[in-house]
């Protein structure tokens, strides 16, 4: 096997005997560095490797130091070069462009900064394409093989240019179209103060929902529910975006219930019943959810897909606060809510304990997790 650099150098020596500086000149003139990572300092390293394998040999004693040693391909080198050349012509090489990693991670960067990065890429590709065309022009007319190499390089850069321009235009258009974001539309409900309770009026919301029971840390049923919710939510988002009604997928939310509310204070999680939810825009229909379930199910086997449904929830009067820290540290806050704040304000339970997870536990340190604790309530009837 030969690396790309080794095959390039060997091919140039099959073409005719050359010394290191001559190889550098030809590599520079032909624009070889546009498609191989072959620096000047690595040419002699490659020559040494090829010589040790018996693929090239010096043609005679150097006139003035190692830099003027002229090398030529041996018979073995010519044979291997021919075989490797045919393999290179036939083999499809996967594209591992670094920009793909950038696009994969771009969701965590502000869209304006992503657009600025793509603008800079657009300028860089244009500049590189201009350089390749100028290099080609200086050497015209070219042999067929050399001309084909330049054709390929220009085609790749032109395709990159078109892709970057199209991606940038799509991103700019997306930024220009305001997305429905439940956290912004209902900012007061999704940004409560930490360390204090506030009484709020919660209107009717629509959710994707899945019911279950058991410890969320160990239950396969819980993991399947969350996976199905996100799978369908993002399918709905992309379908809506195609129709011009985009939205930001809301945070994961959970309704928690038990026969004895005290199990939430004692953290007896095996006795918890739950409904995991993700909010969806008010225009979402049953038919759209069903279609999204079918599409998501074809892409991946989602164990809880059949249990997922569209539901509405109108909690009305609620008390809520922002908890910062591990989930298991919620107990003192809940104890203060249940046994002090509600009785002192003549309020009583009127629905399931509701949690809204503003942080991704996979990427956030436990002490920085942000969770809204919400409790539907009703005012007690004054005693006569």
From TrEMBL:
Chain ranges passing through the membrane: none
InterPro entries: GyrI-like (IPR029442), Reg_factor_effector_dom_sf (IPR011256), Tscrpt_reg_PadR_N (IPR005149), WH-like_DNA-bd_sf (IPR036388), WH_DNA-bd_sf (IPR036390)
GyrI-like small molecule binding domain boundaries: 196-373
Signal sequence range: none
Domain Transcription regulator PadR N-terminal: 9-80
Protein name in the entry: GyrI-like domain-containing protein
Organism: Actinokineospora soli
């Amino acid at each position: 096997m030969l690396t790309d650099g080794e095959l390039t150098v060997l091919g140039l020596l099959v073409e005719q005997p050359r010394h290191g500086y001559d190889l550098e000149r030809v590599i520079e003139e032909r624009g070889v560095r546009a498609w191989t990572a072959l620096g000047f300092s690595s040419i002699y390293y490659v020559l040494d490797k090829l010589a040790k394998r018996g693929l090239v040999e010096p043609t005679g004693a150097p006139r003035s130091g190692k830099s003027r040693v002229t090398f030529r391909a041996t018979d073995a080198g010519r044979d291997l070069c021919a075989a490797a050349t045919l393999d290179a012509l036939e083999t499809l090489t996967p594209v591992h462009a670094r920009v793909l990693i950038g696009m994969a991670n771009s969701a965590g960067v502000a869209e304006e900064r992503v657009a600025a990065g793509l603008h800079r890429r657009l300028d860089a590709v244009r500049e590189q394409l201009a350089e390749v065309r100028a290099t080609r022009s200086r050497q015209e007319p070219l042999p067929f093989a050399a001309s084909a190499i330049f054709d390929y390089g220009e085609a790749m850069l032109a395709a990159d240019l078109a892709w970057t321009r199209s991606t940038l235009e799509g991103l700019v258009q997306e930024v220009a179209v305001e997305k429905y974001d439940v956290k912004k539309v209902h900012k007061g409900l999704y940004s409560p103060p930490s360390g204090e309770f506030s009484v709020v009026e919660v209107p009717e919301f629509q959710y994707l929902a899945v019911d279950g029971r058991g410890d969320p840390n160990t239950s396969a049923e819980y993991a399947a529910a969350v996976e199905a919710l996100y799978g369908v939510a993002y399918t709905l988002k992309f379908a809506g975006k195609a129709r011009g009604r985009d939205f930001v997928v809301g945070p994961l939310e959970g309704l928690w219930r038990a026969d004895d509310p005290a199990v939430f204070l004692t953290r007896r999680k095996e006795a918890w019943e739950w409904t995991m939810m993700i909010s969806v825009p008010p225009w979402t229909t049953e038919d759209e959810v069903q279609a999204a379930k079918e599409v998501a199910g074809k892409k991946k086997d989602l164990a809880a897909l059949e249990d997922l449904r569209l539901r509405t929830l109108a909690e009305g009067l609620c008390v809520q606060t922002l908890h910062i820290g591990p989930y298991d540290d919620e107990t003192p806050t809940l104890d203060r809510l249940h046994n002090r704040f509600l009785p002192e304000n003549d309020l009583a339970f009127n629905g399931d304990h509701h949690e809204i997870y503003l942080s991704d536990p996979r990427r956030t340190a436990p002490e920085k997790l942000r969770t809204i604790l919400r409790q539907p309530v009703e005012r007690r009837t004054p005693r006569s």
